[in-house]
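Input sequence (159 aa), recorded before submission:
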Amino acid sequence: MNIQRKNRERKNLMNFNGISKNFKAIAVEQNSTYQHYQEIGQAITIKAKMFYLLSYLLPGIAAYILLNIPYVYYGLSNFFGLKGYDFQYYTFVIFTLGWHIAFPIIMLRKHDKLKWNEIPKFLSLDKFSLKEVLLVAPIAFALSVIFSLPYMLSIYEPF
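Predicted structure, token format:
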């Protein structure tokens, strides 16, 4: 009886390994350009890693301060002459366009010393990939909705 159970466990493990290999073959693409830029642009020192982690967290911290601390929120919305909803919307647009689009390009140009024609290659925007559109984008979208929905339903309520 133990032999039959071990054989079943081996078959299950083999099936899992097969699924894992198939998923890896579908999801992981060997890209020499990516590997080249990975070797050049990887943060190696603790200081560089901390800088990138802080850069990742800074927009969320700033948005929390700007939108969820009443004195700051009302002070800035009155200073700019915007209603609450408009102030939140413009803050969102500035963070989306400024921080998530302009900041990485500035860092690639100034810190990593990439040329303008190398930036799309580094970001894998130089070629269209159906796999990224059909596999990666839906997963990224679903994860962002899962993680941001509790925030949007509780903390991010307008005053």
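Checked by second reader. The chain is about 80% helix and 0% strand.
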